[in-house]
Queue: 2 jobs
Job 1
Amino acid sequence: MKQRPDSQACFDYLLDQMSSRERRTFEGALAKDDGLARKLYSCSEDLTKFVEGSVELTKPSDRVWQQISSDIRNNTIQFPTTKSVWTKRDSRRPSWYFIWPAAAGILLVLNLLQLTGWFNGSEESQVASSQQESKQGPIEIVVRGEDVVSEQQLQTLRDQIAVLQRDLSVLNENVQSKDQELEDRDLRLTNLEQEREALVQQIDNLEQNYLSLLEVASPVLAEPGEIMVQSSPEYVSVLRSEEDGPLNDIWSRVNELLNGSNIALLSAVGATRSGVDEGGAGGGFGALDFQESTELARTPDPYALAFRNSELNQTIVSLGNLPNLSDEQELHLWTRSEEGEGLVSIGPLPRSLHGSSGDVAAQLPMDAPENAELIISVEDSGYAGEEPQGDVLLRTQSPPEP
Amino acid sequence: MGESVKEQPPQLEWETTLSQVALGSEPALRRLYQEFSALVFSVALKVLGDKREAEEITQDVFAKIWRLASSYDKRKASVKSWIVMMTRSASIDKLRKRARRPDSDSRNTYDVFDYQLQDVYEQKSPAQERAVSILQEKLESLRPEYRACLELAYFKGYSQKEIASAMKVPEGTAKTYLRRGLLRLRQLFNSK
């Protein structure tokens, strides 16, 4: 049988919502389990109250009782029977059904035989019996005395019955109060389970929200790794959704974060095809507001945002809309070792960033100045020169220490 | 002895009466009839919506009580619940037999709720009236869809599938309504 809470099973049983197999299993359990029987009792009481509250009491006509009474007197209604209404679907008569009538018949026959003297035994045994009697003295049969004893016994029995009935009623009351307690506990448990389920559901929802936020925000807020933290091709398309409420939220949170923390956004520079010397510092300092970000998102141009992680002494460069490059080309990250000095190579960017977006954690040289310029250039694959030779794709600056 | 019987809680009193019925006491059956016949008749009427058939059911139920009194198991139900359940069972059997008859008139499921009660039971004591009115008040707070579901299951013997079809909702919804209705019922009747 499919497992269900006891009270649910009881209601299903009472409302005929069980298959015949489930019903049989339930009845089997019911015969063994007093707790389940108590539950059934309680459920049937609830349903009876439901019925009483749902019907208008209406009296049947008098002829109904007349008919019942007449049927009883005419023996039209069979009486008695041990057939159970609880197991109406299994009405096979048990094999021991006739044991009691048979036993009663045998006893009756034995009594008749004794009465007619068949059981008085042989003459010898009668003699022995009379000798025994003579040793013990004559047995007095006092008919009136016997009646008196029976009356007294009857009275005693009546008294005992009265006491037992009182005890029984007290016990029944106790059982009922215990049942009530059990029911109350069950109800409390059910309520607590429901609350727990609701809380679990809330946690699930919060986790879902957290994960979806994390997915969107991770390109910006991810902890830096050694080189490549995360590549997220979806980031570009998400950024383009101007009407996306949660995204606006994220950007405003990013701005809040940037405004008051040691991570500062220095500049976001559009693509330039000029050489190194043509460039200068990119856009202005300060946090990127949402207007700027949507402006940025609207264009398919590549961009670079730099953040500072003082704890790890790393600069995080968040890159977006990077171009697809042929196998012969790759992107290089450069910085200036000292103010006014030439550029030094930090290394090539992972190829997975080509045609995509993602974050790069860079360890700048020890002597790199604050606001060090960061440049991303397009170089031939495997290029190991000391300064950029290809076109400068992006230009930004490392943020200052707070 | 008679005095002490009167002082007993009603359930115990009815158990005693039922045991007397089991021994063949017609007056005991008469006492049960006086107490429960209105409830039996009303339940049958609610299920069948037909006064004559409801009277037949009442007759059948008390005949069954006469025959099956010894099989009553007080662990499983009070005497009243036992009788009410027998009534429901017999009425729904009759309802199903009627539905299987080709010439049966197709009664509307809810006709019974509009039944004009002309013979409202007049022998209710003030205490009984108060008890019934409290029950009715409690049931008023049950959400209509839960109550409809419970009524279809109890008074029409509908399965969850049939309830879903009658209420024009998915089966899962009907199942939920029924379970929540029963849960609410327990809360209502167990609240102090």
Job 2
Amino acid sequence: MTRDPSLVAEPDGPATNPTNASTDDGGRRPGGGDGFVRYLLSKLGGAAISLFMVVLSAFFLFRILGGDPVDALTRDVPTTPAERAALREQLGLDQPLSLQFLHYLQGVLTGDLGESYQYQQPVTTLIGERLGATVLLTGTALVVAASLGLWIGARAGWRQGSRFDKVQVGLSLTLWSAPTFWLGMIIIMVFARYLGLFPINGMVSPHTPPGFWPQTLDTLHHLVLPVLTMASVIYAQYVLVMRSSVLDEKGGDYLVTARAKGLRDDMVRRRHAVPNALLPTVTLVFLQLGGVVGGAILTETVFSWPGLGLLAYQALKIPDLPLLQGTFLFFSSAVILANTAADLVYRFLDPRVRHA
Amino acid sequence: MSKRSPSPVLSARGLEVDFRVRGGRRARAVDGVNLDLAPGEILALAGESGCGKTTLARTLLGLVRPSAGQVEYAGRPLAYSTGALKSYRRAVQLVLQDPTGALNPRHTVYEAVAEGLRIHGISDNERDRVAEALARCGLRPPERFFLAYPHELSGGQRQRVVIAGALVLEPKVIIADEPVASLDASVRGEILALLLRLREEFGLAALVVTHDLGLAWSIADRLAVMYLGRIVESGPTEQVLTNPRHPYTQALVSVLPDSPVDRSIILSGEPPDVTRIPAGCRFHPRCHELASGAAEQAGVAEACRRTPLPVLGTDPTDGAPAVACHLHAARLTPTADSPK
């Protein structure tokens, strides 16, 4: 994601205008707040265009994919050709593609994503029901991975070349290279099958007594392994990005200045290096906020976690076109929104971007 | 050792700093330096890049630990415990070359200047102290600069903020590493005038590291010329610059406008490498006196190539420059081969 420097040239500077107040040669003159409006509009415009492209591709992508939903839906039941034709008509698949597309567009614009073939429920309802489980899983994984990763990464970068650094980088690269589904299966084998510490799949066991506490505790118990899997994979990026970001800051003269003023080394890291090194990771956190929702597909499938990822995976097997379109639209919009948010937040965090 | 009349506020005694470089070789960035800085004195430390002057400055600040020798502040050796260093750093402050890098880009001017106060737990009148430091450095009215970020200031203003950040702790010594090298010519004069005024008003002593002899000429009382980790000539600025005795100083001075050296001497030979310090006089591979045969005539050529020179002491009381050169020694006492 690039920031267009021409659009951020006008800073909305602080209330004071120090440039006029000194004996030195003139510096940069802060401009009005009008630059920000332009910046905002350009970012929102970009997001709108991306969204539109997503809406278009969601329809065609899954039709190019092939596979006949009617075949899949009637696989286990003997059917006559007449029954199949009736089903096809009921699903609207007998209509020409252009008409189907128009219906789809109309639906998207009015907030109606159609009805799932296999569940025979509105797609929006299905997404609404499953969203909670995905947010719980990915949210927890993201928080765990980001906080641990940033903390470890900052320390590794600060002591570059130390054994701690080498071990952490090695570990991160290994985890990063591990495929999610493979790691998930290994984790299931070790922690669920051999050690028997955690349930293998699902979110709540059927025989858990009703009531808030038993249900919550059982959900948390089920949550551990999927979160471990997901966090392990995304954790590496935080470690590596934070580490290199700290390395960039480490050469900064302002750290020497702070040290020369008498600041202890770990305080130099905490007060100066880490806050500044965190800036680039803001973008990463936001990108993943969107991406992780979609990235949950693998983890949710391995652990049969009843979230959006599993829903999308099940829809893909049919293919359940409305459900696929719906989840695809949802995942993509999440990424686009998160990107836009990252751009806007970054601008407020870093005074330099305002004048770039 | 004879001391100059006021006892030095900061001194280096036989300071050596080694670095390990790639391939396991040792680089001796500072190789035996004696230096005295009197209260209210401005001492310029000049030399080419890579001669060890920045390392020397950082060692004097306690940022680098010497491999041998010691730094003395007010006559007492500098201890490297956390607490001792902290109180030392209240008294000796650093000003770096590039004010853009020296300021945290995400801290406002107020935060940058107040940081020293906060580190040292000085919490009374923080606002007034910050305002006063900024005003002293010519940023007036100071309140207008409080909330500005470094990128909103000009280079000269930034350097004033850096100096204000050092001054706010009311130090006795400022160590400035190329303080004006990254500034425009018009702003340089103002920053140098500021340093001189601070010395005048507050008796601040300063060690100014520079590669620019013109700068040394304009502000320094004394000048020490450094070559490959050692001081090769030191003395009152005027004497060193108008009558350079060491061939290296002569070469540096000869290329200045209105140079007292009648021809310009272009240094030849390989640039200095701290991992391979030549035997004998460390300057001899590039020395024009040796190349021209002047050393041969004086009968010291062999000494130049073989005999190591003693480390210069601090300046003698009579104010005469100290010079580390076999030829110079031979000319002073023509009969002796290698005196001192």
